[in-house]
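Please annotate the following for my students:
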Amino acid sequence: MARYSTDVIGVSGFGVDCDHLKDPSSQYIQLAKRMLSSTARDGLVAFMKWTSPMLYNSTNYWHIEVEREIVSLVKSCMQERCYKPSSRRDFIDLLLELKEDVMAEAADELLKEENVNEITERVELKMDELLMVAQAFMFFAAGFETTASVTGFVLYQLALHPEKQTRCQQEIDEVLARHQGQLSYKAVKEMKYLQMCFKESLRLLPPTGFLIRKCVKPYKFPGTEVSIHPGVYVLISVQGMHNDELYFEAPRQFRPERFDEGCHIPNV
């Protein structure tokens, strides 16, 4: 699934047909593996983020070889298109279209807590080459591992529950029959049970283990003497919430039907 996800991102993001399923040693796969691997240097930089923010800001979060690879990759894609949007309609095309314009956005929602009704200051941003590389990098980094993990987890759960797998397959066959065998965005949206299986897999095995939030005002946990103050970071276990009987009945069981539109899911 990691190789398949890289294929999808290569086509939709960079307009490159890599065929990683047959060639696991390609440039994209090696780059993805390096991004997900952790070295002593990476651990030190991550530690500095929390202990020495000023020193951290003067370093590169990713190793220089990773940055060099992604910069080379994006630049080569843009050079092939002479820095002009093509007909591929991928992520690089969208960036090239943005590069021709100046983006301006009013900060209307800023400082609401201070009762500011209107903010006249506008933020202007020129889409230069370095910024384009950064966006492409995040597209690759954020989309690769999470997509591969989630799809892998879904296949794993369906393998453990053959009756759910059969129902999924029947739905896919029925939907594709209505669309003359053509797989499209519209067809996938009609696969409701498949979506339930994805949601249930995300609940059981969330790709993000925890959330980090920063306290902005004094708070005392109800029924306890424990309190936290502004500036304190709080780590919240996603899997802990997803496996809590307070929110999900029989949380350890794989039940895609719990995400049926007619089924009420309590808000966490």
User: Anything to note?
Assistant: The longest strand covers residues 102-106.
